[in-house]
Design a protein that fits this description.
One of its GO terms (biological process) is ribosomal large subunit assembly. This protein is an alpha+beta fold. It contains 8 helices and 18 strands. Strands 8, 9, 10, 12, 13, 14, 15, 17 and 18 form a 9-stranded antiparallel sheet that branches. The longest helix is centred in the N-terminal third of the chain and has 16 residues. Guanosine-5'-diphosphate binds next to helix 1.
Length: 309
């Protein structure tokens, strides 16, 4: 299956959760399998009960037979390089902006990093149903913000949609048909390149997100950079200095479906997966097939920066 990996960047309250919920509802995955919605909710309740991550870091929707992995970015500056690591898994980004609030400086950090990585963001001016919406001004604000952050001409020529996540539509014009989110789905598929990764090399991924789960233990999420992961395969964990930290097996191999993580037998280059079964692996280690003896070029961890708004 074809894949697109995108980050979603938004200031808190600008409607990220509502929009992603609508993308889930309107995506093919739900039409193919109505139980997904129920299951996703169940797992959320379970997580709430267990007091762990409530919001999915990665949501996966299927549209026209293409899997779109949507990765959440922290809405603020961070100290550990998490933003860079997350952005290293994606080939595009949606910058979601409230049509009344405008481009708030808090998203500057993440947008700046996305532009510096050469990503060409899609801008969604959201909540245009608000009576105090000022979509045209906000469009100009976003342009000015991108320019101030050093965007190149191509990045400044960003595709843009007006939307109401709450009403479940996105459109190129304010006078548009206001039907559904199909324009946003198509824009993502057309504008964001597919991950161009080598499927024939031996398996390797970079551990990008580390979580602890009461049942699974250490869960490491990352994008498969090359090859294919299979359930239970023996793997080597390599640190950036080239040393082998441990060897073990992928006792759990999980792929994202909706808001849920489901066990799969195998996953291919470009997909974002979560693995368990390793006791020492951490971020940003390389998890790879036994024959791999070099870590993938690790993403440098930023030294703490104090000048952030
Ligand atoms: P998040 O913090 O970015 O995830 O934002 P939420 O999706 O939780 O939304 C924040 C608030 O904005 C909630 O009260 C939503 O009901 C409201 N909201 C979300 N989308 C829209 C929209 O399209 N139009 C309007 N008017 N309100 C919205």
């Amino acid at each position: 299956m074809d894949i697109r990996n995108i980050a979603i960047i938004a200031h808190v309250d600008h409607g990220k959760t509502t929009l992603v919920d609508q993308l889930l509802k309107q995506s093919g995955a739900f039409r193919e399998n109505q139980h997904v919605a129920e299951r996703a909710m169940d797992s959320n309740d379970l997580e709430r009960e267990r007091g762990i991550t409530i919001l999915a870091k990665c949501t996966s929707v299927v549209w026209n037979d293409i899997r779109i992995n949507i990765i959440d970015t922290p809405g603020h500056a961070d100290f550990g390089g998490e933003v860079e690591r997350i952005l290293s898994m994606v080939d595009g980004a949606i910058v979601l902006v409230d049509a009344a609030e405008g481009a708030l400086p808090q998203t500057k950090f993440v947008v700046g990093k996305a532009l510096a990585r050469g990503l060409k963001p899609i801008v969604v001016i959201n909540k245009v149903d608000r009576s105090d919406a000022r979509p045209d001004e906000v469009h100009d604000e976003v342009f000015d913000l991108f320019a101030a952050l050093g965007a190149n001409d191509e990045q400044l020529d960003f595709p843009m949609l007006y939307a109401s996540g709450r009403q479940g539509w996105a459109d190129k014009t304010l006078e548009g048909a206001r039907k559904d989110l199909s324009d946003l789905f198509s824009l993502v598929v057309e504008h964001v390149p597919a991950p161009g990764l080598d499927k024939t090399k031996p398996f390797a991924m970079i551990a990008t997100i580390l979580e602890y789960d009461n049942f699974l233990g250490r869960v490491l999420t990352g994008r498969i950079e090359q090859g294919k992961a299979t359930m239970n395969m023996p793997v080597r964990v390599l640190r950036a200095d080239g040393s082998t930290v441990e060897t073990g097996r992928l006792t759990k191999l999980l792929s994202f479906r909706g808001l849920d993580r489901v066990p799969v037998d195998e996953a291919q280059a470009g997909d974002i997966i979560a693995v368990a079964g390793l006791s020492d692996a951490t971020i940003p280690d390389t998890i790879a097939a036994m024959e791999v003896d070099q870590p993938l070029s690790a993403i440098p961890i930023d030294p703490p920066t104090l000048s952030m708004t």
